[in-house]
Amino acid sequence: METIIGEPLGASLADPGPLRCPGCHGALRGTDDGFDCDEGCGASLPIRDGVLVVSGAPTDDNQIAADFYNSKLWPKVRFWESLFWALNGGERRAREVVLRRLPQTPGLRLLDVAIGDGVYTSWLPADWSIVGIDISMTQLAACRRRNSGRDLRLILGEAEDLPFHDHEFDAVLSNGGFNHFNDPEAALREMARVAKPGAPVVIADEMPDFLSFGHRLGFPKLDRWIASKLMSMGDDFAGLVERHRNIDIAEIGRRVLDNSRYEVIWRRGGGGYLMFGAAPADEPVRATSDAPRAAALVGA
Ligand SMILES: C[S@@+](CC[C@H](N)C(=O)[O-])C[C@H]1O[C@@H](n2cnc3c(N)ncnc32)[C@H](O)[C@@H]1O
Ligand SMILES: [Zn+2]
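^ thats the input. predicted complex w/ zinc ion below
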């Protein structure tokens, strides 16, 4: 896979790697400033500031999330995130609980869904080839700055409609965004589709109902006020958090992945979860001799 970040755009982009046309799902061909559909459907994907733009306006709740992560609200919420990490043993230690579920295979091809600003990307082995997708251009720009020089492709697009051919990745990670995806189950199905059969898919986030003080007292609006005003999420994103507070993560994992497991992690400050499993094989199954098996997860 070619590098976008840290290299001049141009010849190195001619290879679309795992990318497929978001319009017709056919092949793409490199152009001077991005990719065009090679099957004639007319799709054209530009590269802006080192980020491949696959989708324009996000759908439904994803627009609320994109507005939030593109705004000045998210840096304010980061204060609470730092507190959360501090309560859970420090950011590096807390995040390693998730990252160590990825197989330590040399040259691993990883897809990071909702990569954000790529805080932990540099902690991953230097020989891994990483593709990151996110709906926020602001976060992707920060990720690009933070990780210049890595084998990292960044894509503006939605988790629910991944612009990749089937069975391309050795592992898929999604940390910190899953609860608030417009359609978490559709996103997980997409992650399983683009992973090689048997490859690990690793999801982590805070508990969807991590704000429960008001609900327990019988004043659910209090939690919404805490999210919106005290934690500075704003009304729209706080509404999204409230609407998604009852999603059943373990059940979604069971419906989509093989050998799915669900664990409570980050027990302080509202708690978090780790949900992981193996991408199921579908028919016809492609050659997968180098796919890390689900067994790589067990005992990690
Ligand atoms: C809390 S940040 C987590 C970023 C990073 N993975 C981390 O752990 O620090 C959540 C990210 O999810 C992204 N996001 C939210 N909904 C998304 C969707 N449907 N598809 C892709 N990215 C999404 C946001 O833009 C944001 O960058
Ligand atoms: Zn096409």
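The two ends are 27 Å apart (CA to CA).
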